[in-house]
């Protein structure tokens, strides 16, 4: 079962890389020769450019679980806090928007005097 999941992920990664390489090749060949006078590139060169840009600009990293990972981490930290630490955290977060601590302030609007 795990083998099929890994195979499915590999197929999706390969297909996505091919689509991105194809898209990158056509965008490069459409824009770069006309704007900067550069040569056109092949599909393999576009894939290489994609990998190089991913390494230099995006990095290769493992995703940490997104929102669920963050919530799990915060729940663990919260459970180890003393009551004083929790109050200090709440007081610090009251000034931030959408934090969930304290009353929400409505934006003040000016009313015309009659």
Tell me what the structure shows.
This protein is mainly alpha-helical and 114 residues long. It has a domain at 2-57. It has four helices and no strands. The chain has helices at 2-36, 43-58, 66-79, 83-93. Helix 1 (2-36) crosses helix 2 (43-58). The chain is elongated, with a radius of gyration of 25 Å. 3% of the residues are buried.
Structure described in brief:
The protein has 114 residues and is mainly α.
List descriptors.
single chain; 114 residues; mainly alpha; 4 helices; 67% helix; 0% strand
Average pLDDT metric? 81
**Multimerization state:** single chain
Element order: H for helix, E for strand: HHHH
Number of strands: 0
Structural class: mainly alpha
From the spread of the alpha carbons, the general shape counts as elongated
What distance separates the N and C termini? 74 Å
Total helical elements: 4
Roughly how much helix do the residues carry, as a percent range?
A: 55-70%
Strand content: under 5%
Q: Rg to the nearest angstrom?
A: 25 Å
Low-confidence stretches: none
Sheet bearing the most strands, described?
A: none
